[in-house]
Amino acid sequence: MEINVRWHLFSIFITGFSLMFILAEETCRAEFFLKPSIYMRLERTDNLFLAEADRIREWIATIAPNLRIAHQGKQFNLNLEYSYEMYRFLYEPTLNDKPNSHLGVLDGTFFPERAFSVELHGDATRESIDRRRSDLVDTPAVNTTNRYMGRIRPVYHLDLGSRHFIEAAYVYETVQYDTATSDDTYSHRGDLLLERKQSARLDLKVEGFYEQLTADINQDYDRQQAVAGGEWRPFTTTTLSAKAGVTWFEYESGENFNSRVYDCLLRYAPLQRWAVDASYLKNFDYDIQSGLHRTWQGAAGISYSGRLSWRLGLLVRIDEYVEIDRDDREQGAVGELTFKLTPKVILGLNGDGRRYEFEPVTEHVDRYSIGASVLFTPRAYIETGCRYSHRNSDSDIDLNDYRENRVFCDLRLTYDMI
């Protein structure tokens, strides 16, 4: 497991760096920067394991060296950010033996702006193991695992005149986790896209793919999908993008089914600082434990940007799982407010309230959180701040109740080497 994780994650990184230096001599007028930094945080929580009884208070220290590299040239573009997060717990020293986290993202393109190019993407993140308890991913003490994803995508672009465009691509992707109960996956996919520029305000698209997914825990499957849609800009203030189609699944067991899929987004920005958006999505996603699930999601929001910026949003989501008897339902509202007190000091407030319903073991959960922050940037290379948050979860199942107060101060130092 550990060898596979390291191999599949770092092979794309190693390939990217190797080709970068091989092609460096051929790259003219390239732009390159190297920016190391270090992030330090001291945190205090009064409920380390998010339990209603026997609440454990804890001090947590985090140190994370970070490196950012960016390169743009004729032969390749590369953006890399990598952090190694190390944690230390004061009163629970056994947690110090837990694996530290590799966090980062890599995006690269070889032979950019040419008919044939190769796109690379890799990321290392921390993810919730149980999505029903997905409200904590910023410390590794509860319900979290490290996730590693790598993707390589050779793609061919063909322009058919000034109004038509064809793109064909092959995608290999691997996703792996540190925990044995999470489902590692590997997939091969072929993509095809046809785009027509109907007018200055209307773009039309037809796209499809064929995918083969291999999973270590859940069933393997083949998937085909075909959708059509476009983007319409009737006014300078309004953008509507929509696509709809059908997707087909065939499992290794012989079971097969099909479903309609949709993805719609409306954005209205009547003034420069104001924006209103609404979206609707019906598609399929993959859970790290329970496999494939059908998702419906609707969202709407309104925002204002200025010295006093704010955003209000609403969300409704339903997840129906394919291989097991499980439904997750969620609805809620979020709000965020920031005020630029001075060019170097930013104050923030945020709130989040959600209502969950889980089946087949019926559980209703009300969760909310509120928070406040102060960010201070005295110099371009120094960023510091303090944050406070209160969270509360009220469940039908008493063992799932919890309350937590959390405060931390952090500091980031950055140095521009090149």
Quick rundown:
With 418 residues, this protein is mainly β. Helices cover 6% and strands 68% of the residues.
Strand fraction equals: over 45%
Q: How many E strands?
A: 20
The oligomeric state is single chain
Q: Which class do the helix and strand fractions yield?
A: mainly beta
Main beta sheet strand tally, sense and closure: 20 strands, antiparallel, barrel
As a whole number of angstroms, the C-alpha radius of gyration is: 23 Å
Order of helices and strands: HEEEEEEEEEEEEEEEEEEEE
**What is the percent of helical residues?**
under 10%
Average residue-wise pLDDT: 90
Distinct helical segment count: 1
Distance between the termini: 38 Å
Segments where pLDDT lies below 50 for 5+ residues? Answer: none
- Shape estimate: globular
Describe the structure.
6% of the residues lie in helices and 68% in strands. It is built from one helix and 20 strands. Strand 4 and strand 5 (116-128) form a beta hairpin. The protein has a 20-stranded antiparallel β-barrel. By secondary structure, the protein is mainly beta.
